[in-house]
Amino acid sequence: MTTQQTHVLVTGGAGYIGSVLCKQLLDRGHRVTVLDNFLYRQNSLLDCCPFDTFRVVRGDCRDERIVTDLLHDADVIIPLAALVGAPLCNRDRVGAYTINFEAVQMLTKLASQQQQIIFPVTNSGYGIGQPGVPCTEDSPLRPISLYGETKVKAERVVLDRGNAITLRLATVFGASPRMRMDLLVNDFVWRAVHDRAVVVFEGHCKRNYIHIRDVVKAFLHSMDHFESMKNRAYNVGLDDANLSKVELCGEIQRHIPQFVFFEAPIGEDPDKRDYIVSNERILSTGFTPDWSLERGILELSKCYTIVTGTGYGNV
């Protein structure tokens, strides 16, 4: 078990996941240092500032001088800094490679072997799975986007280095101080609340989902059970939320009845991912998600009563 005043270094800590994770780490009594470039001009860590145990540094995760200094007395390293999502990575291919892979590679070389790493990757690395066959952590990784490729490559470096855990996250949903509306559930609920309709391309494609607070719970669980979980990858998703896009729209419609959706007979989605996932490995360690898809949809409905602008995304 981790102890009070464990020092956690979080790169990209002002992002969608980090801005929820850092507050919970501080509430637990840990010391937290964040390195972030504040690319989106976000103010998502303001509720962390009252903590004497919180430090924030504005900088680039690729800057060896800064990273070396911040690693000095860290116990746990959580590298969240990344260009997340296929559209953003395609827009900045050099940035995707240098941030998502090379910065992580550098960090593994600079960190001491005693420092623990908990690294998030994406289960989109499974690419296109076999129909009806859940992907496990032993399934082949066949990413079909630059984003997936860089994260899969970085995961290999982290696991080869050792003393590490990797979390293969399902598509995340839910409210965050650094909100993202460009994630599938978040986007569809936004459209349900404000547009009342959506046109779905390739509605048969399936993927897995997980609430942001259960992602954070998985990080905390990994810290608490590090010795028994280390040096393995873990899928993190809801076993009852392996859904196609059409099935997802149906779930949203149950809670927002005025929402209508249409499956386009022609056209295609550039995101070709299509797979279902088994999360048995992390469940076998005692981890249990708290947030159902239904609960997340209801949360997002309230969120979008407050958030009315559209400038919340990575692209």
UniProtKB/TrEMBL annotation:
GO molecular function, one term: UDP-glucose 4-epimerase activity
Presence of keyword Ligase: no
Location of the NAD-dependent epimerase/dehydratase domain: 8-237
EC annotation from Swiss-Prot or TrEMBL: 5.1.3.2
Keywords assigned by UniProt, alphabetized: Isomerase
PANTHER family: BIFUNCTIONAL POLYMYXIN RESISTANCE PROTEIN ARNA, NAD(P)-BINDING DOMAIN-CONTAINING PROTEIN
Protein name: Putative UDP-glucose 4-epimerase
Originating organism: Nitrospira lenta
